[in-house]
Design brief:
This protein is mainly alpha-helical and 131 residues long. The protein has one domain. The chain is 79% helix and 0% strand. The chain has five helices and no strands. It is globular. About 4% of the residues have low confidence.
Length: 131
């Protein structure tokens, strides 16, 4: 079984749903025009929104190929950090329960990507020593 199979599976499903649904519903365009443009990214808000969604979409597949795990992790971690800063921080910690739209889910995703990234790094390092 591939290392971190369960983390890769969960991240793949989450990123797939997060990208495909918003692409087909038109939310990605609204996010770019109605949010990103208004917080200072105009006139590039829509392009940035599409870049984020396409990174998530391509990550679904690239996360399964060990040479791309580190790059996929870094790109997604940066997206989630900016998401925390721009959107979720003002809402506190909780996504549901003690609040809404907080940072807890993004923090969990960042930790999953860090685990994936550093597990792969250490396994590659061990393989190089034994060669």
């Amino acid at each position: 079984m591939r290392k971190n199979f369960y983390i890769r599976s969960a991240l793949s499903v989450i990123l797939l749903m997060h990208s495909v649904v918003s692409i087909f519903s038109g939310d990605v365009n609204n996010f770019g025009r109605l949010y990103l443009d208004t917080v200072g990214f105009s006139p590039f808000g829509i392009y940035l929104a599409w870049a984020i969604k396409l990174i998530h979409l391509f990550s679904v597949f690239l996360i399964w190929y060990d040479p791309y795990v580190k790059a996929v992790s870094i790109f997604n971690i940066l997206i989630f950090i900016f998401g925390i800063y721009l959107i979720h921080w003002q809402n506190g910690w909780y996504v549901v329960g003690g609040g809404t739209n907080g940072i807890e889910f993004n923090v969990l995703l960042i930790c999953c990507f860090l685990q994936l990234m550093f597990t792969e790094y250490h396994s590659l390092k061990k393989e190089k020593r034994s060669s």
